[in-house]
Specification:
Elements lengths: L1 H24 L9 H20 L10 H24 L1
């Protein structure tokens, strides 16, 4: 049981850092057009796009939707771990 929780935590950390790197790439010119930028976009954008639809940028330039998306991802992980532990014991 603990190994499954560890795997989920590790997968969460990898995806978390992928989102962070993708966000930081938006500050660098042409970084998202690179191979890594396009690859990260294919993995991260499907998760971020629903949040971007419902959360408009603040002041027209500050996009806080990735922060909300990461919080929701953390809450989903905590809920999944709680459910797994509930059924395991």
């Amino acid at each position: 049981m603990d190994s499954l929780v560890n795997i989920l935590g590790f997968a969460y950390q990898i995806y978390f850092y992928m989102v962070i790197v993708y966000i930081l790439m938006s500050w660098l010119p042409n970084a998202r057009e690179s191979f890594i930028g396009e690859w990260l976009g294919k993995l991260v954008e499907p998760y971020l796009s629903p949040f971007r639809r419902f959360i408009p940028p603040l002041f027209g330039v500050l996009d806080i939707s990735p922060i909300v998306a990461l919080i929701v991802l953390q809450l989903a992980l905590n809920g999944l771990i709680s459910i797994l532990r509930y059924f395991a014991y």
